[in-house]
Write a structure and sequence with these properties.
With 383 residues, this protein is mainly alpha-helical. It is built from 16 helices and no strands. 78% of the residues lie in helices and 0% in strands.
């Protein structure tokens, strides 16, 4: 038998490893990736504004839809919705932030004065068991120096917050600006996004539904419930005459947003301090209020506000929020859970394609089994 005939007889007839068409395609991919990266660099400073604008657009969309039914003019309807959001949410948030900084500075100065005067030591020395502990703490930590450094750091931080007021105002303006166009051009925006994503319409609906449910669960559930917990805790601080009620109410609200943390990290130490100080009446009232009204409001309000939308297991939600805050800053409260939700939806899309060998036709409610598995509950497949 002779040697098999070579498909290409000459070097000129052999196809090049990198043909001209392939080289042009790779160059286009590289240019597109570079352009996308440059666009990301342009948008990165405004990611917090975009995140909050998206969240507010999702939350306020029912209001916008009701306004559109009465006012068919898109510009006017969007403007009225944005004005309502600014009055109801943005302005109160700005006021609370300013008061938080003021009360934090005053509280730090009061704490430093308390430590410097030695009154805290007198409180602990009333108890024979706590007196040795107070002496060890004073020897190990030198509370006066620690308090002085804390006050100085807080004052510097407050100064940086004041100096950043201009940038904060810019972020607020960008948020309001984006919110207006999210309302007015929502159909165009969604259509453009669908044309860029390599998913079928049904699969895109799965991802979009997951993102919307996540934002609503985060805002209506986590943030709203945390705000109510902070309000109740701060209100009791004010009723009992404790210092800086708005400060500690805000701290309780922020802690309540993060899973596995909570408002108890504030009111339990405060109740213990009151008890050690001999103020048993206020200690019992604060502990009872915190254990009932503050702690159980989550179980009462969350199902009403969110229903069964996205009650995920605590662990992935914890990492999504804490990791989101680490990566994106304050906007990570929204972006972290959204990244988790999109990832879950894409995994479900791939599972569907792997099982059925084709894209599309995946029902919008199909991602529910994945959420059920994350909750450790038995999932129900749609028939």
């Amino acid at each position: 038998m002779g040697m098999p005939e070579t498909p290409w007889r000459t070097r000129e007839e052999r196809p090049a490893f990198l043909s001209r068409d392939r080289a042009l395609a790779l160059a286009l991919v590289a240019a597109t990736a570079l352009a996308a990266y440059l666009c990301y660099l342009l948008v990165r400073p405004f990611l917090p504004a975009l995140a909050w604008a998206l969240a507010l657009a999702v939350v306020a969309y029912p209001l916008h839809r009701a306004i559109c039914k009465r006012i068919p003019l898109a510009n006017v309807a969007a403007l009225l919705t944005v004005a309502a959001v600014v009055v109801a949410i943005v302005l109160p948030a700005v006021f609370v932030s300013r008061q938080f900084v003021k009360q934090a500075t005053v509280a730090a100065e009061m704490a430093a004065e308390e430590v410097s005067s030695g009154r805290w030591r007198a409180i602990f020395e009333r108890s024979a068991r706590l007196a040795p502990l107070a002496r060890r703490v004073e020897e190990a930590l030198e509370p006066r120096d620690v308090a002085a450094r804390a006050v100085k750091a807080l004052q510097e931080r407050a100064g940086s917050l004041v100096s950043g007021t201009v940038w904060t105002a810019i972020q607020l303006l960008v948020t309001v600006f984006c919110l207006f166009y999210f309302f007015r051009d929502r159909r165009v925006t969604v259509g453009a996004l669908r044309s860029l994503v390599p998913l079928s319409d049904a699969e895109m609906q799965v991802v979009a539904a997951r993102v919307v449910d996540t934002i609503r669960a985060t805002i209506f559930g986590s943030v709203t419930v945390a705000a109510v917990q902070g309000l109740l805790g701060g209100l009791m601080f004010w009723v009992l005459g404790l210092p800086a009620p708005l400060l500690w109410g805000t701290v309780m609200a922020l802690l309540a947003i993060v899973p596995m943390l909570g408002a108890f990290l504030v009111w339990i130490p405060a109740a213990i301090y009151l008890a050690v100080s001999g103020d048993w009446l206020r200690a019992v009232i604060l502990a009872a209020w915190g254990a009932t009204a503050v702690s159980f409001i989550d179980n009462l309000l969350y199902p009403v506000l969110v229903g069964s939308r996205l009650r995920l297991h605590t662990l992935p939600v914890f990492f999504s929020i804490v990791g989101g805050i680490t990566v994106f800053g304050a906007a990570g409260v929204i972006l972290g859970p959204v990244v988790l939700a999109v990832s879950m939806a894409l995994v479900e899309v791939w599972r569907w394609r792997t099982a059925h060998g084709r894209p599309g036709e995946i029902p919008v409610e199909h991602p529910a089994p994945l959420a059920g598995r994350l909750q450790g509950q038995e999932a129900r497949r749609p028939s």
